[in-house]
Amino acid sequence: NAGVTQTPKFQVLKTGQSMTLQCAQDMNHEYMSWYRQDPGMGLRLIHYSVGAGITDQGEVPNGYNVSRSTTEDFPLRLLSAAPSQTSVYFCASREEGQGSYTFGSGTRLTVV
Amino acid sequence: KQEVTQIPAALSVPEGENLVLNCSFTDSAIYNLQWFRQDPGKGLTSLLLIQSSQREQTSGRLNASLDKSSGRSTLYIAASQPGDSATYLCAGLNQAGTALIFGKGTTLSVSS
Fold it and tell me: Is the preceding peptide bond at A61 cis, omega within 30 degrees of 0?
């Protein structure tokens, strides 16, 4: 099992550009989430999904879109990148019930 | 709003010491609790999951406990080693099961 796979690992964007961070899991987990990690702020939830076709906003959703067309994939789209979106982004998944979360290795994004 | 506090923020100990990391919640209504380890520039590795019906979990030299009534959890590390140096994060799963609420972590340094 690969677990949770995130691509790319590093990305530099110019202000105003758009891009998609990819996340895929091969554990057939229903729950998937996107978090961002910033110094002094900890990890904060951006969006989450409880199954294919179902998504909802977390604590800091502005500037981001998500979709969940399959159980395996949960891409995060930055619509118009801003320097405030410079961060490390983590995707995570877990099975239904009381399963533990599994995290990807992260995408380090810099917006200049 | 649920907030998670981890104390201390940083800790330096000599090799071989036993140590305790603390985590507290403003709202004790969490579903379960998970402890993670994060190495610099890396993703999160799950250490222990304490499910809603449990009070503690053990894995090797690690023992985590959860007291829901007081909103507190502790991570006990026995006989610390330099390889234990990392940031330790606690996270509570909200009652809806949709979001992990993270503390800002305790950065541990174990010297040989």
Answer: no
